[in-house]
Amino acid sequence: MRIAVCVKQIPDPATPYQLAPDTHRVVRPNDQVLDDTDRFGVEVGLQIAEGNEGSVTLFSMSPSGSLQGIRQALAMGADKAVIIDDANLGGSDALTTARVLAAAIDREGFDLVIAGTESTDGYSGVVPQQIAELLDVPSLTFARKVDVADSVVRIEQQTSGGYDVVEAPLPALLSVTSGVVEPRYPTFKGIMQAKKKPIDTLTADDLGFTTDQVGDAGAGQTITSVDAVPAREAGEIVEDDGEGYLKIVALLEQAKVI
Amino acid sequence: MTTWVFSEEADGHASPAALELLTKARSIGEVSVFHIGAGSEAAFEELGTHGAATVYHMPTDDHLPSAPAAAAFASLVEEHDVDLILFGMDTTDRDVGGRLSARLGRPVLGNAVDVSADGAVSVTSEILGGTQAVITEFTGPAPALVFVRPKAFAAEPSDGGSPTVVPVATPDFGRSGSAVVVESHVEESEGPDLEAAAVVVAGGRGVGAEEKWAVVEDLASQLDAAVGATRAVIDAGWVPARLQVGQTGKTVKPSVYIAAGVSGAMQHLVGMKDSGMIIAVNKDAEAPIFAVADLGIVGDLHQVLPKLTEALKAR
Fold first, then answer.
1. pLDDT digits (tens, 9 = 90+) for B62-80
2. Does A26 touch chain B (CB under 8 A)?
3. Structural domain that includes position A124
4. Which residues in chain B have their CB less than 8 angstroms from residue A252's CB?
């Protein structure tokens, strides 16, 4: 079974994000990390591969750099990675990202595509569904539990009031929530092996895209301004001296909720 | 300007998001709705009174509606002049809207908190935990697809009457529509609805352990408040996912939000920062939650909350 897992390298979320003043794009340092939410997709892919004689290929649209985030996912156990690295892709919107990833996945061949629900740095939250439509496969999203058996994928889809059990025949796409599984930590052996695993690099042109179809030119949208949202007025911050709860009581009275 | 709003029926009602979006859309121009589900009279009436002149209704069965709904919606868009399509951010909204975007080859914008249509359609979205407002203009051919955050607009009925209801047949959807909903589970919930409650008591990782979670529930029950939680708490399995507040969870705007042991990650702030009053209790004086708090108590929540609960009980 050929399992494609979409992953994204993002600037370390522990550092403050910066937007380039001219393009309004997130400034991407050379050393990006694996989006934490993608570890869950990689783990689900590995578990399914282990139970179904499968292989896991990572797909990522990523500017060149150290690729340490991709190595991290390879060290968890993924077999190979396909990176679409092309300066013309800078500024691509969600749909272009989906088109590029779908084209790369289709070129490689797949039975199951796995993605996170949304990235930590961009979060349009619809790239998985767009990929599914472009690949003409069902999209099983917001999975909190996943089983694959006899070429059928069955998930528990998180809903606002509980969950639905949804199933579809392969090929299919699924998006997983964080918490669906406990992602494994790379072992020392895994880290050493990851250094030898193949990373294929493609350009947009390799996938049949012209420069006016991707990046800023293909985005169909342009950022006109970025402004700081007025901060809430500074509140009162106090050390608890054992009587801190009385301040809360007073505020709750003021808000007329007690 | 012609706007279409997506609506999914649940328990005989239009989705709350659709009514919020209609309230905004009718101020921009003419509005139609693409509504999926059972198709009850009550749902149609709600859509009408909130501004829908026409409701295109596609019934659903046990198939996952995303692919067939996107295919039917795409045909309607191709038959009509549509400038703007508004979705909420629920699972089905994202599934149908994402697929529709790919089908039509039209771009999307997510996390919108405002939409304007003076000439071009432009969208305000808040990024980086709601600290930065980005205005993006659509530059390509119509329609523009926009996903709007819950509660960005308040739903208000207008003097609109019953809408014209146009039945839409479920298209032949082939391979991408082959997913089936086998079972549906609604988890029993107690107390007020998280998204509508006047007071929310939310706990974060700082609560420490599942067996200590009662400290949050006790306070909530004393205040007749809804219980909320951060993603870390959901991921740890202490409480069900439907209690999650934040980017991938629910958006709340209560009069009072009490955050106990919540650090205030960007993804959490975006779901609660517009609350009327925010009270935070956290051991870490540097926690980002204090930057948005009207009152911050730097201390042990396991000291502060029980005393607060007792004091409220004694009143």
1. 999 999 999 999 999 999 9
2. no
3. 2-218
4. 223, 256, 312
